[in-house]
Amino acid sequence: MTSVIDAAPVKPAFRLTRAFQGLERVVVPALLIAGWEAFARSGMLPPALLPAPSAVLHALGDWVFGLDETTQTYSGHWLRDALASALRVFGGFALASLFGILAGVAIGWSRLFEKTLEPTLQMLRPIPPVSWIPLAIIWFGIADKPAIFLVFLGAFFPVLMNSIHGVKTVDHNLVRAGAMMGASQRQMLTDIVLPAALPSIFAGLRIAVGSAWMLTVTAEMVAVKSGLGYVLWDSYYFLRYDIVLAAMISIGLLGYLSDLGLKAIMARTLRWQQTTTVQGRAG
Amino acid sequence: MAAIELRNIVKVFSDKRRGRDLLTLDNINLDIEANDFVCLLGPSGCGKSTLLNIIAGFEQATSGRTLVGGKQVERPGSDRGVVFQQPTLMPWLTAIDNIAFHLKLKGVGKAERHHRAMEFIDLVGLSGFEHHHPSEMSGGMNQRVGIARALLMNPSVILMDEPFAALDAQTKLEMQEELVAIWQKRRCTIVFVTHSVDEALVLGNKIVVMTKRPGRIREAVNFDLPRPRDITSPEFNDAKRHILALIREESTRLAQAS
């Protein structure tokens, strides 16, 4: 009998938490959007200056699916625009990852590379990638190349810095253990230093993919005539703030998805790390 | 010919902060015979780990000669297995891959590597844990992997730098017994660094007592008490009394000197 009394009040509370668990991710965005919609409809600002979420969604829907041509020439062309941006991001990011990891491991491991290469790179690092735009246009013209160049500049340094840091902080006893087991210099790098530095390298890659999206969009506003950034800037000239916002949302979404993909690769590669870190804890 | 010959080993570290040199090892001469279980016993800071690192090839002596199997030691190599104070395993590899890492470096195929590593998994009592990562095992289990990893290389000598120092008392006792059993079964030469008199007496058949700063050999005590050793027997206590007397004499000398 006591057990019935004990158990009774627990059940509804339990259900409530269960119901909330699926929703916890959407509570904040839902409230924000509801507030925005209410504010936009209140008439405090002209609708042209602050489009309501419903209007933005309408524009986005037409841009993606070509519903009623409210986005005019962009109607139904979202995939083409997103793909153009994504390819630039991917191209610049891939180049930056390759060279960033190579240079970072070389600088972190070898005094010679540290002395010869690092001062130059560290001097280039504080120059904002955006300030290269004039030169990028002169050198590469108006097309994919200047955008990829800018993405490369923005993504390279986070990868470089984190790779250097990752290699420099490898436990020197692991290197000793490798030497004890007869590792050659090359094996020391590929079989010990590189895997040990991977957590740090991945941290760099995740920062880099974010920079890559930012710089693609910047480049497209100035130096390219396609992609999400171009649509954003072009719509601004035509005072279509609903499309501007739809483009911003698209960029945010794609950036988020790229990070999610990278995180999935990282989780697979660094599975060994999960039981010791905060990331691996349950819940 | 001895398995390990140390001739006039001197090691000087330059202490940059104080701007002077620190004599760490002062003219060490020692012969270690094949199949000996030698314990280097001394307080922390006496240079015993430095001496082990010199034999391992991790550090170079300032002067003197180090010969292992008659060959001058110049760099680390798989003829000398090292078991570190911390397990120092590759955290991204499973137990079996850590044990077989030497074979991987030599280009041996995966099936063959795992086949050969299984023997050592069994030897150190880790059956069932071969596919666990170091982070999923206890400190004692990881140290077992470290020992198995050194044994797999079939080295002429095994160098151990306080490998049980971080373990709890009970696990330490277990590991000591197992190490002696492995040593008896496989007949290898072991140099074991420790600061514990009891540990040295449980394990070694030769105990090299070192003095503190500069590190010198105070006395090399032969200790052939049959195994398993009874740590409460009169012979054990006699040896312990003798070694403690050496250490006490040493601290009195240091106290007077300062």
TrEMBL record, chain A:
Spans traversing the lipid bilayer:
89-112, 124-142, 148-167, 188-215, 235-257
Per UniProt, residues of the ABC transmembrane type-1 domain are 82-266
Q: What is this protein called?
A: ABC transporter permease
**What's the main place this protein lives?**
membrane
Name where it's found: Cell membrane
Pfam families assigned: BPD_transp_1
KW Transmembrane helix (keyword) present: yes
> What does the similarity note say?
Belongs to the binding-protein-dependent transport system permease family.
Gene3D superfamilies (alphabetical) = MetI-like
The protein's job, in short, is: Probably part of an ABC transporter complex. Probably responsible for the translocation of the substrate across the membrane.
* Keywords per UniProt: Cell membrane, Membrane, Transmembrane, Transmembrane helix, Transport
Q: Which GO terms describe its cellular component?
A: plasma membrane
Q: One of this protein's GO BP terms? A: alkanesulfonate transmembrane transport
Topology of the protein relative to the lipid bilayer: Multi-pass membrane protein
Out of the domains of life, which is the source? Bacteria
Q: Which organism is it from?
A: Bradyrhizobium niftali
UniProtKB/TrEMBL annotation, chain B:
* Keyword Transferase in annotation: no
Give the record's keywords alphabetically: ATP-binding, Nucleotide-binding, Transport
InterPro entries registered for this protein in UniProt: AAA+_ATPase, ABC_transporter-like_ATP-bd, ABC_transporter_ATP-bind, P-loop_NTPase
Q: Report any Pfam family annotated for this entry.
A: ABC_tran
Q: Name one GO molecular function term.
A: ATP binding
Q: Where is the ABC transporter domain?
A: 4-237
Q: Record's family? A: Belongs to the ABC transporter superfamily.
Q: What does this protein do?
A: Involved in beta-(1-->2)glucan export. Transmembrane domains (TMD) form a pore in the inner membrane and the ATP-binding domain (NBD) is responsible for energy generation.
Mind telling me what this protein is named? ABC transporter ATP-binding protein
